[in-house]
Amino acid sequence: MTSLATTKMSSKGQVVIPETIRKQLNLKAGAQFVVVGDKDVVILKSISPPSVNEFEEMIAEARKKGKQAGIKESDISEAIVKAREKTK
Question: What is the pTM of this model?
Fold first, then answer.
């Protein structure tokens, strides 16, 4: 069921998500969001860190793609060194 509510933005840019919406979506203090703005539309998309299993699956997929692309561990080490040199 979709809920509809109104809210205001404070002088500090803070927006309160109405209680009915927080309860419906089970949002707790500290919840994180991606914020997308386009013309007169603002979208808040709740995000959460991946579980350990999801993270392991992502790492396995990245390793698989790297292997398919012919990337070696030494290539990664070299890229890290170059990136760190740019930040100095």
Answer: 0.56
